[in-house]
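Allow me, if you will, to draw on your knowledge of protein folds for a short while. I have a record of one protein: its chain in single-letter code and its fold written as discrete structure tokens. The full record is reproduced below for your convenience:
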Amino acid sequence: MKGTRWTSLAAVTRDVIACERCPRLRAHCEQVAREKRRAYIDQEYWGKPVPGFGDPRARLVIVGLAPGAHGSNRTGRMFTGDASGDWLYAVLHREGFASQPESASRDDGQRLSDCWITAAGRCAPPGNKPTPAELDRCRPYLSGELRLLSRARVALALGRIGHEAWLRASGWWERLPARERPRFAHGAEALLPDGVTLLASFHPSRQNTQTGKLTLAMWRAVFARARRLVDGA
């Protein structure tokens, strides 16, 4: 798959959904989909790799970590069906990027405007921890999306892994000397030589939101900044 030159986001989506490159991840996702969580016992889980979602003409690209076992792995849409998604879609709606403040399922009518949501990994990993090798195998999908999202001017990385994934997938990891690579920190902002601005935020995981590491005010401030940058692009 390395070096694949997709000609459309739809083609990337098809290949993501059909991907079998990481046996550990595929086995885990399928097991979760079979066993289910009691609250969702009557639902059919997606159980496959999760493609990106949003507006193909987006100027804002959001990069997360990977699907949640009972969130995106259940619903088949990025950041949909769990607490992290509740935080994300509420603020996207607040800033005019999403048609609804909630995202519950693939057929709930949610629409994104000027925004694309993707991730470093496309399968739910055990313990929310994909291995470096698994992230490497998944990276071509993110690279393909970034190349096809030609209008993107702002990238918002959620978490350190999403931050590094964007730098690697966009090519800046190799092109920039180590000392010049943007460092991850909540609220950090870096203008890349091609004019794209990379923003960083703590991931809206329960570990961060319930401990106060990421507050609602901090979260909203990052997205308000993203909105201003997109409007000024």
Remarks:
- The longest strand covers residues 60-64.
- The mean pLDDT is 97.
- The longest helix spans residues 132-148.
- Residues 80 and 103 are 5 Å apart (CA to CA).
